[in-house]
């Protein structure tokens, strides 16, 4: 009779261990997501958050009819490409260099995390001074090569390049360490066999390192895509404008959401923007997953 009594706590113990996670996820993850979807169907103003007026899909249609939404979407895509591609390419090159024996490589590995540990506000304020039109260091260097000053805050492409450079500076070292960890998991025998066959370091990188890093590269691409879609702090603090410049030239979806909710006090529309961003992220992550799976199938066939 004593065995069933002792068996019950053992059976329930695993569920007790995982219950705190699901409770916290339901309270701080699932509930805000569902409540945001609920609010997006109503007209809710920041001054009177308790006054709900049913709109159905009216918030979504109003946003999709807003030209500034499409401008923000286009800016998000452009800044995402300008920041993600150089960031991951540079991180991959730095990780490849640190993977070989190098004097002081422990110091360099630690130093790579310093930009990531720097506050977004501090980094953006410094870059804002560097990209100043009249007294910025970047324009001073540009002048040394015989070019005129660039208006980094008011130009469309120039401002997007400036904002992207902040993202590249902050996240390159972080991704480099992720790539470095992935490289260290590749068996050393593969490099030794390639070296015996006479493969140069470049060929070892192409035919050994890149195939072994494919899951890691897919992970960093997905995470960087999500981060680019949610970009907020850097464009907000670059000039201190919620609109992302005079002509919304670098306003991202994150800034557009903030402007709708806390600039125009339309919480319902802000919730609709949040859900559109969520759906956009799901689509982008799905496309990345399909491309990665298709690539893996093609290599298996070879």
UniProtKB/TrEMBL annotation:
Its main location: membrane. SUPFAM superfamilies: MetI-like (SSF161098). Keywords: Cell membrane, Membrane, Transmembrane, Transmembrane helix, Transport. It is found in: Cell membrane. The keyword Cell membrane applies. Pfam families: BPD_transp_1. Residues 73-286 form the ABC transmembrane type-1 domain. It is a multi-pass membrane protein. The chain crosses the membrane at residues 12-35, 77-98, 110-131, 272-292. Belongs to the binding-protein-dependent transport system permease family. This is Sugar ABC transporter permease. It comes from Streptomyces solicathayae.
């Amino acid at each position: 009779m004593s065995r069933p009594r002792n068996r019950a706590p053992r059976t329930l113990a695993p569920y007790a261990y995982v219950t705190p996670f699901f409770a916290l996820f339901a309270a701080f993850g699932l509930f805000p997501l569902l409540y945001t979807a609920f609010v997006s169907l109503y007209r809710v103003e920041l001054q009177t958050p308790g006054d709900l007026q049913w709109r159905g899909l009216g918030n979504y249609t109003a946003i999709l009819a807003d030209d500034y939404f499409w401008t923000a979407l286009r800016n998000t895509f452009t800044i995402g490409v300008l920041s993600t591609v150089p960031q991951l390419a540079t991180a991959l090159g730095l990780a490849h260099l640190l993977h070989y024996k190098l004097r002081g490589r422990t110091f360099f590995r630690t130093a790579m995390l310093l930009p990531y540990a720097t506050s977004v506000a501090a980094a953006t304020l410094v870059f804002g001074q560097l990209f100043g039109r009249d007294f910025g260091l970047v324009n001073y260097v540009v002048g040394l090569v015989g070019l005129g000053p660039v208006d980094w805050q008011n130009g469309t492409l120039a401002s997007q390049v400036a904002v992207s450079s902040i993202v590249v500076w902050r996240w390159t070292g972080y991704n480099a360490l992720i790539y470095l960890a992935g490289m260290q998991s590749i068996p050393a025998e593969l490099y030794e066999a390639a070296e015996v066959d006479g493969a140069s370091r470049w060929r070892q990188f192409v035919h050994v390192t890149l195939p072994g890093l494919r899951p890691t590269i897919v992970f960093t691409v997905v995470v960087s895509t999500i981060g680019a879609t949610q970009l907020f702090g850097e464009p907000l603090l670059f000039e201190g404008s919620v609109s992302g410049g005079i002509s919304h030239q670098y306003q991202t979806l994150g800034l557009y959401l903030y402007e709708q909710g806390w600039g125009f006090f339309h919480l319902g529309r802000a919730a609709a923007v949040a859900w559109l961003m969520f759906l956009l992220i799901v689509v982008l992550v799905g496309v990345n997953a399909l491309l990665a799976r298709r690539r893996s199938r093609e290599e298996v066939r070879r």
